[in-house]
């Protein structure tokens, strides 16, 4: 089990050791890696996805991770490294296409099984 810290405020922040699977999945989810640190930032709306991802990759239940709320002023501008809505949409569409390909493969495998029974 590797140490992972999930903080929830205006964004979801994950401090975790480097893992190539997590890096790729976090990037696909639209997360941004903070320069010079091991902290990933995600949209608050992706909290459940982030927790599941951490659980799958780092091997423990992150639902019990303490939540730290960091208040922000409404007038604060987002940081420059935030993924644009256009890029996030493109990332999600790529992910959807991959999932649809996987569903098609599963469907084909199931059809092959039903022919043999």
UniProtKB/TrEMBL annotation:
Residues 62-85 are annotated as: Disordered. This is Uncharacterized protein.
